[in-house]
Amino acid sequence: MTVSDTLNQAMRMEVPNYVWHCESLTFDTVLPHRLHLFNLGVNAAPSGGSGWNAKERFGYRLFLGDVLVFEGTDFFTPLGMGTDMQRVVLELMSFLTLRPGDTDDDYFANYTDAQIDWRDCYAEDLSAEVSAQLDRMTS
Predict the structure, then answer these.
(1) How far apart are CA 100 and CA 26, in angstroms?
(2) Extents of the domains making up the chain
(3) Cβ-Cβ contacts under 8 Å for 29 (sequence gap 6 or more)
(4) Which end of the chain is less crowded, N or C, counting CB atoms within 10 A of the terminal residue's CB?
(5) Contact yes or no for 93/26 (Cβ under 8 A)
(6) Can you spell out the DSSP letters for the chain?
(7) pTM of the full predicted structure?
(8) Model confidence pLDDT, tens digit, residues 123-137
(9) Is 70 exceeded by the pLDDT of residue 120?
(10) Residue 22's pLDDT is what?
(11) For the segment 44-98, what is each residue's pLDDT rounded down to a tens digit?
(12) 7: alpha, beta or left, given left = phi > 0 and alpha = psi -120 to 50?
């Protein structure tokens, strides 16, 4: 089953569990970002030690206006974090706004040209906003 199939199946059953909006000021133009988040349930996997490691799995779609930038079903949080959807969104956005220098170059190997353009234009500003919101949550 593809990422789109999994998300489409979740979307047929319900609306996104959470929708996050952020206005990005770039080149003096306000551009709306919207993140749809879907709780896909709990995945249990061996922890590598003697127990099991349960995590909540989320599907997501990030839009710039009406244009889909990213979609995936590969975001996991520690069990219980899913009750704080704002925290889940900010953690996911920290992941989606990584830039060269934040991680290995191989991380971006599967990015499309459109995703690279988005990253180069918007990721830094969004990352700063996400970091500021995370700082306010932990203060």
Answers:
(1) 19
(2) 3-138
(3) none
(4) C
(5) no
(6) --HHHHHHHHHHHSS-SEEEEEEEEETTEEEEEEEEEEEEEEEEEE-SSSSEEEEEEEEEEEEETTEEEEEEEEEEEETTGGG-HHHHHHHHHHHHT--BTTB-GGGGTT--HHHHHHIIIIIHHHHHHHHHHHHHHH-
(7) 0.74
(8) 888 888 878 877 777
(9) yes
(10) 60
(11) 665 555 555 678 888 899 988 889 999 998 888 877 665 677 888 888 988 999 9
(12) alpha
Sole residue written with tokens 């995703």:
115
Residue 24 has what pLDDT?
Answer: 45
- Dist. CA 67–CA 52, nearest whole Å: 39
Exposure class string for 62-94: b at 16+ Cβ within 10 A, else e: bbbeeeebbbbbebbbeeeebeebebbbbbbbe
Whose tokens are 């906003």? That residue is: 129
The single-letter code of the amino acid at 11 is: M
Q: What percent of the chain has pLDDT over 70?
A: 66
